[in-house]
Please model this.
Amino acid sequence: MNPALSRNLTIAFFALLTFGTLSPLLFGSARFPQWLEVILGGLMSGVLYSLVAIGLVLIFKASGVFNFAQGAMVLFAALSLVRLMEKMPFAAALALTVLIMIALAWLIERLVLRPLVNQDPIVLFMATLGVAYFLDGFGQTVWGSDIYTLDVGMPKEPKILLEGTFEGGILVNMEDVFAAVIAGVMVVALALFFQKTGTGRALRAVADDHQAAQSVGIPLNRIWVIVWSVAGLVALVAGVIWGSKLGVQFSLQLVALKALPVVILGGFTSIPGAIIGGLIIGLGEKVSEVYLGPYLGGGIENWFAYVLALVFLLFRPEGLFGERHIDRV
Amino acid sequence: MIYREAGQFKTTYASDQQLFPILQDRVFVLLFLAFAFGLMPFIGTEYLFRAILIPFLILSLAALGLNILVGYCGQVSLGTGGFMAIGAYAAYNLAVRVPDLNLLVVFLLAGAIATLVGVLFGIPSLRIKGFYLAVATLAAQFFIDWLFARVKWFTNDAPSGSVSAPPLEVFGWLVDSPIEKYLFVLAIVCVFALAARNLTRGAIGRSWMATRDMDVAAEVIGIRPLHAKLSAFAVSSFFVGVAGALWAFVYLGSWEPLAFDVNRSFQLLFMVIIGGLGSILGSFLGAAFIVVLPLVLNQVPTWLGIPLSTAMISHIEFMIFGALIVFFLIVEPRGLARLWAVGKEKLRLWPFPH
Model:
């Protein structure tokens, strides 16, 4: 597809998105404060999808591996933290979980990636599927499989804002705001790490070209351990936020699967893409669930993201912000 | 297995290209079929049929279908469970709405409907491949799950979304005891396995394999990727759809959409990887492995005298599956079927390997 058409389609997509988001207001089926609540709720869950998607993008950029196990890592990190917190204070548990995630990254590099080096990407993808299953089983064998409540002191009670402006005000979940702030901080930290440190520069070099990076003396194996560790830490943050919102339980894994359409939408190689993709998907599925759901029997949330990704794959496989480099068939 | 094929000369092309060119292989396969059809019904227990053989055969059929797509044509699919659901619900609707239809026709039509849907979701494969395609098929999976859970027409307005299959009757033969069900499924699976074997060694199968190995090169030598990929999706979905209909009608009896969720897709993909990508035999070996492994795992703790909860066993099962996937991908990417072939080759030369 030529670039001009592709650009026009992108513009059309954003126009459609804006129209779809605003249409409940325009056709008078919703009151403004309620609508604003839906929008905010959608954006907040979008932030959480973005958190998982960032981990995916990090690993894909640095090693070309599409890490299906990111969701399992989220669950594993959250489970480790919540169970360790029963035995020790929060700070110690957090430190220990960080260590566990780093050890996990090292093990994955040693036992899975290194023997499979130079294989097809799809083989690596299936290997991470195996890792995901293993982690699910392992986490629940070691830490148990009940639903645990994770309380890290995030404010739970919802606040009513703008009471003066609208009648009744709008209900905002403070937990979500907190999560969004944490996500923002993390993205800034990651950006600084990637742009300003030597290791970050090495990571970007590896992402650009494995062989060239290796030929100027960047140790690939160490870079992979680092990037999987960073992805593990991102998974931990996502796990903490998800876990304290929904409880730490197995279904976290399915929620994390939504990160796949998010990266398709945003582009595999772009961290801003992961964030914006997450926001679009969170927003889109909430709005369509609330305003379109009643006509279609509800439950749209379960597939909206995937079908949107499918449409994107058909018309713009590189995503909104991805590189225009894709294997044409 | 210790045999020599010395002295078997092929004097015609037909004898060179037949299904099993070696006499001993033919005898072995025929004996095996005679055992499965003739002897098994007399020596098997009801538990063996109901809990092991019937699910094994049906899942083999589904794995066979998936193997055509993943193993032969190289297109990864995570939506197999969804296509099984299409087959199951299509068969249900046909059987309920057109009660006079012969059940075999119902199954074949269910497969045909699954084929249509499969081709529809296969269209993205013309532009994308690898894990992009995996996500596209994942979309099919979740959409189909939702469709059958929420759209009441498909479940004939059943309040809970759970539906029951009508009694199985083929040409006046009421298939209701486990032995009869076993024979019914076995016959269907044999026909489909033969079809798959012949498809994959014919022109169409070679075009799939060429596309899998290198799509650009395949196009250069005159294979149309459109035909190759969509025909692989079509054949695969047909197999999977029939397997879904059988799973619902013969094994489950009554079911809800949850029976065909995304975990079923992963399970089938694991069967194909462990059994052997691009191998008919591998589909059966993989299905056998994954059906039998949980049963064995359930028994091991009692043998060893360690009491384990069922939840714990299912978690350990997850771990073993995951580890095995990684293990097979690293050590033997062509799976159990390859191990079997290696073993056969070794035995053929034994005891004089040189």
